[in-house]
Amino acid sequence: MTKYGVIVGSTRKNSYSEAVAKAIVKGLPADAEVTFLNIKDLPLYNQDYDENSPEAYTTFRNEVAAQDAFIFVTPEHNRSITAALKNALDVASRPWGQSVWGGKPALVASQSISGISGVLANHVLRQSLVFLDMPTMQQPEVYIGQSDKLFDENLEPNNEGTKDFLASVGAQFSQFAAKFA
Fold it and tell me: Which stretches make up the NADPH-dependent FMN reductase-like domain (predicted)?
């Protein structure tokens, strides 16, 4: 059984990023253990805390360490990832030399209500994951544009094409992650 951590870059209620993540998770094997990690309440990373980390840092680092693989879904903010997502990456990669991300396979998906699909946020996140030593699935690339039109009021895919594609991404990621078990 693989433990999948899911990190949603959006911290707002009813986010399309969370909807995309949930649709991807539906394609994982039935015995997958899935944990959505909360990043919205993490204090802003500060190197001064390396000696005596806040409890929220320790809890989050332990949650990250317990996972086998990660699914990241992010919106695009100002042509980059969200501040909350960057903060989460920093918190679990510090203190220097004690990163808990290394070696864990990752899937990156981005979404936007615009036609640009969060493509720049997707690639910014990929750059960070390279540095964090996380093997990242390259194909299929997951850029979801006009997400506000692809999900219904319950944040479920409103068409079979979107539903099937996102579930297939989850299935493909489970095969990718298995190579690193």
Answer: 3-147
